[in-house]
Design goal:
The N terminus is likely disordered. The protein has three domains: 158 residues, no CATH class; 76 residues, Single alpha-helices involved in coiled-coils or other helix-helix interfaces; 123 residues, Heat Shock Protein 90, CATH 3.30.565.10. A hairpin with a 2-residue loop joins strand 2 and strand 3. It is elongated and about 110 Å long. The protein has twelve helices and five strands. The protein is 67% helix and 9% strand.
Amino acid sequence: MTASTSTSSAAAAASTGASASADGPPPARFAYGGHTWREIAHLLVNLPMGIIGFVYAVTVVFTGGLLSVTVIGLPLLALGLAGARQYGRMERARARTLLGLHVDEPSPLPTARHRGGFFGWLWTGLKDPVGWRTMLYAVMRLPWGVVTFAVTTVGLFVLWPVLPFVVRGLANADRAMVRGLLSPSDELEQRIAELESDRGVVVDTAAADLRRIERDLHDGAQARLVALAMGLGLAKEKLLEDPDAAAEMVGEAHGEVKLALQELRDLARGIHPAVLTDRGLNAALSAVASRCTVPVKVTAELPERPAEAIEGIAYFTVSELLQNVSKHSGARSASVDVWRSDRRLLIQVWDDGRGGASLDGGTGMAGLADRLGAVDGLFVIESPQGGPTTITAELPWRDRKSTP
């Protein structure tokens, strides 16, 4: 009975072993997860993409170089470099999809209109570092694609147990190549992208300011002046028939003139106050502080005046912050300090109010931060619940141009 049982067990074990051998590799299959198959697919596609890139790069460089003695050679080379950017975009997308590698897109080339016409565009295109690095990447991809395709193909049939480790090493080399040659050049590239974004903020802000001025003129002074003209016209008609009524209408018109002038003064102050132009930040900020509903102490220690644009941004920043102090803070006192530190203009507005100020609080803080960021400035809020609130703004110092 025991011998029979042992014999049956051995037969079953042998049968199981034979079945496992017939089914293929041992259960080391767990190493072939989804990420491994995506890396294998990437390495196999390297060869066709390498052929496309190599042919494109060699064709562009040799054609552009040989024809550079003619008028079409250099423009063709510039166009080829611009096309290489598209190849780089496809390769970044492939690495993102199959390798999980996220690389920022480089900033786009300026258009001819932004670079002084055709010759500006040509010069910018010919010295485009992104295009040249993508060309180098395309040339390197062909021999590398041959290696990765050959190793991966052989590994699928011969090196099955260790293939995941081989694939991971080759994929890491691919990641390094993409990161090194297809990522934005350096901090300068990233800075260009930031400045282009900031330029959009400046344009949007300027457009919003123009719309505000137009609306204020249309709804305020213009409407009042139209009513004034109509009133004076009626007074002229009644001048001989009813002098008393005409005199009363002229008196009303006189009052309208005063109101229209006050509205125009307020509008002009909102565009650029005369006191800022004539007497500088200290006097202008003191005037703003005098209109605040909270007592404000102003200290402006500036040995000289900054550039007009920086001075204007500083003025309107403090003006809006003090409006927020009046409307939202519940403060009993506030202060404004302005000083220069090296090549920076620093502004600090403090109040002892309830605190809780933030960029998303609906008080215009986000707009101020955008405006300062557009000129390479900083905007920092320290406003715990219960107060006090300290807001620090920092602007680049630019020397004021001397006038003849």
